[in-house]
# Entry
Amino acid sequence: MAKKSKIEKYIEPGELPEFLRKMADALEGGASEDDAYLVMIEGFKKLKINIRNEYGHTAVKVTAKPMYTPFSKEAEAESDAPSSEELPCDNKPKYKNLKKRMKGSFKIIFKSVHAGTIPPPEVVEEFMADSHQMVSFEGYGDEYYDEYIAACEKFQHACNDSNVQAAHKACDEINSITAHCHSRYK
# Structure
């Protein structure tokens, strides 16, 4: 699957509302056969819409980044075969890619708990799975791993119990442990 997809169109200014309605319909119920090119915005992680007036025409550029899907053998077969450097032989993702994904999910978690809400369960599940996978890598702050996983489990229990205060406290603990580890190893 491509990292991101783009639609670039030049339309008359009066056609813009109709185009935006078609996009909204594709997001709600899927793209119609007439507008099959809009299928790329279904299930997006990030969607950017850029609209400009250029010499009497309206330039519309839509960029969609697909939702992250965990690594699988099928995904490997569909994509270009990764080099041995990109994917270690035991089917672990590259450490750098794992940490980048964790940074994104923790950002959502951190903002959610500090806004007084429990983060989406999918984000918590992804972060927990990635955390357990991260601690299987040796040489990246091993002495912090036990403390880190204990804090992650406190966080997950707080989320499962819908306890915002406990989730907030555990999230801050994860953040502190991470900061200490990164100060030594990053």
User: Anything to note?
Assistant: The helical segments are 16-29, 73-78, 95-114, 121-134, 142-160, 164-185. Residues 70-89 have pLDDT under 50 and may be disordered. The longest helix spans residues 164-185. Residues 110 and 171 are 7 Å apart (CA to CA).
